[in-house]
Amino acid sequence: LTARPRCGTLRGMVAGLPNWITPQQLSVLQELHDTLERERIPWMAAAGLAGNLWGSTRPLHDIDLDVPTAALSHLAALWAPSVTSYGRYVDEEFDLDLLRLRVRDVEVDISGADAAYGFERNGTRRLLPNRLARRVLRELAGMSIPCQRLEDLIAYKTVIGREADLRELSALHAQAR
Length: 177
Prior knowledge:
By secondary structure, the chain is α+β, with helices and mostly antiparallel strands. It is 31% helix and 27% strand. Strands 1, 2, 3, 4, 5, 6 and 7 form a seven-stranded mixed beta sheet that branches. A two-stranded antiparallel sheet has the order 8-9. The relative contact order is 0.18.
């Protein structure tokens, strides 16, 4: 991963925003970017945000980021007023360490990249390809965003198997070629 430039200002960027992100979401993303960089915590956009950075046009529901699991407690302390939940999260799709925030009405999910698992539709538990060492930079509104590699994102979405994700896979596969 090459050195990341600091975020650009959001002034004048609203008119040129992609239709999948709101100005408020972008502002929160910039704040998260600045905090993670200042704290020297490796991170990357994952899940839906990564899909958007690779070309998906589905509206962004929340901001999904991955960090080293060991950094989650530090981030929970830094963002304490915004924490809505923190701990091991297990449901029919995921088994991972998760810090959930609500920042200025924007939902943020920060997952521990280590020991993050997803459940296939048949119930098989699989390690998710959330390897921070493989992240690449993608541009958004003057920011360089560390992002999940496209092939890792496709593998992640294949494991989870949600219908919306599977529809998106064909477009992401075409872009990967």
